[in-house]
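Researcher: Last one for today. Full complex below.
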Amino acid sequence: MNRLLAVARLHLMVPARAFGLPWGIVTLAWALSVALFASFGDNGDVVIVGGLFSLYVILFLSAEQAVTRTLSFALALGATRRAFYLGTCGFLAAQALAAGAVLAVLRAVERGTGGWGTRLSFFDVPYLVGGNPVQAAAAYAASLALVCAAGLAAGSVTRRWGTVGTSVLSAAAIVVPGVAVWWISAAGGLAPLGNWLAGQPAFALRTLWPLGFATVLAAIGWTAVRRTPA
Amino acid sequence: MNGPSDPARPSPLDVEGVTHRFGGVLALDGVAFRLDEPGIHGLLGRNGAGKTTLLQILAGQLRPGAGRVEIFGHDPFERAGTQAQLCLVREGQRYPDGFRVHHVLRAAALFFPHWDAGYAARLAADFELPPRRAVTKLSRGMLSAVGVVVGLASRAPLTLFDEPYLGLDAVARQHFYDQLLADVAAHPRTILLSTHLIDEIADLLQHVVVIDHGRVILRADADDLRREAVALTGPADDVEAVVGNLLGTGPGTALARERLGGVARVTVRVGGTAPVLPPGSAVRVEPVSLQRLVVHLTSSPAAPRDGATAAGGAPADADAGTTTTPQGALR
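Model: Here's the assembly. Have a good evening.
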């Protein structure tokens, strides 16, 4: 347990990187959006901007670098791969939960202030989140956990199998869902699938399914990391 | 160093039959040796001899293709208790993004149970490491100094240094050797250091393991190695007569022959036997430095595998080996 905490503290060693970078970028994107849409004037429409996407990109890249850059150092300090991976997963999960809570609060403020006074929908991204603040926090956290797990898996595969592995993984990430959709569609299953999805409760779609995929990706990452050389 | 091991106090380091391939390249071939006593030990060999691969395997950072590795009685790979006893300082270590020197030291403090923060700070000051400097902005020498500080201040019961001095100037290297000697005396532990700069560190070393082309070709006490070979210099005929006598009567091998006009210099591996000179001989007998011995032993394309060397004795099969030197085969 001590070693897992040590790994988590290793990820937090440079707060400017761990917190400053992602939240700095989000703040910048938000401030630009607010300034821009305030200057356009209110035409009565709710404007949805994709600025929050930047947070997801940065957390993906941070999770990837946690493996490609930090693993070698952690092993040099005597962490085992298992301790490193579990500690990193714990850190990323805690980060997703905390960020989810912060985003839910910001979303509540956004809704309470009429979109920051400019009908801007920056944090309240339709489909991604919905419901009450607790449900929104869970949905944010689950989607952030999913991108972190994807970054972890991508970094782990790069660490173990280099560029070839990453290329194969990227290709698989595109081809496998594509083929699956084609196959389901050829079997005439697309409409039933759509109905089934539509019938899923929002909580399952926004929270449980992303968490399930995150778990699968984290497991893929572990199979790559468990025997990787330093 | 080959005495029976005490199960209650397992050896810091005990490897047997360690073999490792990278693709088709045989990097290590049946490496076996053991270090029983605390102290500073040298892992010597040329570039590409397999030193770095071996150290990574010893540290559990790489899993060997075959063989047994025991660090304090346990396989170090993925074993947390053993990893806590270990520190490998390797050349070209990567650090996490955004790390400054003081981050590295604080991170080391999180992981090494015997870490001495005060000592680390003193060492960092001695090596003139700016604590706030980003690791990516450090010169080659400063990066090496960071590794040296981490390795020394870790006080790990088994500390492995892989050529830790790259880019360090002579003054800084001397400071490292001084600190190593003083700190190991004050806090006894086992250090295994791979190096090319053998002469600089020869006086510090207790045991020496020489590897070449992935095989251990020599392992012995450093003191014994100082008597392992002699250089005979003088009139060519006289020298050859002494050499012929040496090779004829005992387990000796001529390692190198140099000749300038009528004067010859022959380096002979005598395995501790002092050469007997005829009375009034013009031949001078000089000791051969560890560095020259290693150079002679490893400058051949395929040096012979050496058997176990007893703690106080000569190589068991030195007489059976055929050493090819740049000057040609001699036996």
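Chain B touches chain A at residues 56, 59, 61-63, 78-80, 83-84, 86-90, 93-100, 103, 106-108, 110-112, 156 (CB under 8 Å). The longest strand of chain B covers residues 25-35.
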